[in-house]
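User: We ran a pulldown and think these components assemble together. Before we commit to crystallization trials, I'd like a predicted model of the whole complex to look at. Sequences follow.
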Amino acid sequence: MADEKVYDCLKLENQLCFPLYACAKEVVRRYKPFLDEIDLTYTQYIAMMVMWEKKELSVKALGEYLYLDSGTLTPVLKTLESKGFVKRKRSEKDERILNVTLTADGCMLRDKALSIPTQMGKCLDLDSKDAMELYRILHKMLAGFTEASEY
Amino acid sequence: MADEKVYDCLKLENQLCFPLYACAKEVVRRYKPFLDEIDLTYTQYIAMMVMWEKKELSVKALGEYLYLDSGTLTPVLKTLESKGFVKRKRSEKDERILNVTLTADGCMLRDKALSIPTQMGKCLDLDSKDAMELYRILHKMLAGFTEASEY
DNA sequence: TATAATTTGATTGTGTACAATTAAATCAAA
DNA sequence: TTTGATTTAATTGTACACAATCAAATTATA
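Assistant: Here's a predicted model for the assembly, 302 residues in total across the polymer chains.
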């Protein structure tokens, strides 16, 4: 009686959220040895990815790309600035806006990071069909989230 | 020249890890309003899921289910104990082992949690085919991880 | 133009995550 | 059986993550 079927929906193995949560953590953990070599944490790495692409960006815009708020980004960006990879500067037109720009050192770091995606790909060993499916489904979910939060 | 194709592999949109990381965070965030009602955080919730099923467990065994180490679990379990949902007690046979047991209050919480999986399911709005695919791929990845870390 | 509302980051506090170290207990080998 | 290795949690330190609040600047409105 203690293990009635009513409770099956609360079993860890029947959750979709849990493998998502656990996988995300494990993947970030697998990144660590590679990211250590370029002195970045995972959060710093994805922030740099956007910086490499955009060169200059406000904290707000960066946060929208990364799904992170200023409470998380402020310390991350301060660390990246102390490492000399980005500069933080208030906009002259609107002092509420803080613009983040890539430095020469930050730009050079891009070349050091080039090998990381391939190395990670190997260590996940997911066949390309599954990888594409996973990519598709996750982006579908994310799209649903941004849609739902804008009313 | 600044945006050569060599760097495409470092674009955020070409990563598989990033939507995984972002989705996991968003899903946990979506849980919050529901979990607030039973005074649990997400980590506490998944710990309770295992406790509801197993009734009694060592910290180590719990950590293996959740992919979490004692550095994370110790404070989580102390909080759950302070809320009266679990008891922590050293094993008499082997004092290195700390056994966690479900209390009557902890057991009762299970009924309050019953509606959460359904409510979350609605708010993710993923069709069942995609949900099954996602479940399959994530578990495949997790299996690959545990395999790779046992040598 | 005052005043109110909004935008934007920063700050604060709580709660994970995890590596590295410590400490205690148990187990294994010579 | 004593020493050495292993197991198991706890502790410490660093780094997110996010809700809530604050503060400053800008924009909109009466």
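Chain A touches chain B through 58 residues (CB under 8 Å). That may be worth checking against your pulldown data before setting up trials.

User: Thanks, that helps.
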